[in-house]
Amino acid sequence: MYQKTFAWYDFAIITTLGVIHMSTSAIFLCASGFFPLLLIATVLLRSDHLLGGLPKPYNARACQGKNWRGAFPYLSKQDIREFLSIFVEGFAFSHKERLKLNPEDQILQIYRALYPCRGCADALEVETLAKYIKERYGFSLGDVWHEKITLGELFQITQGVHSL
Predict the structure, then answer these.
(1) Distance CA 55, CA 47 (A)
(2) Range of 29's domain?
(3) pLDDT digit string (tens) for 3-34?
(4) What is the pTM for the complete model shown?
(5) Within a 13 Å sphere around the CA of 110, how many CA atoms are in the beta-carbon half?
């Protein structure tokens, strides 16, 4: 008789002469435990976001630095890059891709590109961004939030609040 206990569940699979014996509760635990893990793994493995990449169509873009400088010619490249770094850090994107974002990009559209199904569990990207905005710029994202807020609009607000 061979008995193996799995660390993540407290049940045993007993093998006697090559026949596996499991109780109903073990099968239930197996099914209830592995199905959600399999589902989560499938979603994550299919997502470019797992590797820190921007979602489609943002990841296919060339550098948008010219658009940022055109929209905010009076602000430095360093200010723009710092803001974009905070955004990509909040959303767990790669810093290498921060300049693929455009000032006209809506934050909620970027979020929905990551999580197209409503009600899906997320990684608290917006909440993390709000925390970083509060820490760096000293205001609450919730105070200025609306569904169509763009990166450019948020950047402009951060610069106005930050310069006070």
Answers:
(1) 8
(2) 2-46
(3) 544 444 444 444 444 444 444 444 444 455 65
(4) 0.68
(5) 26
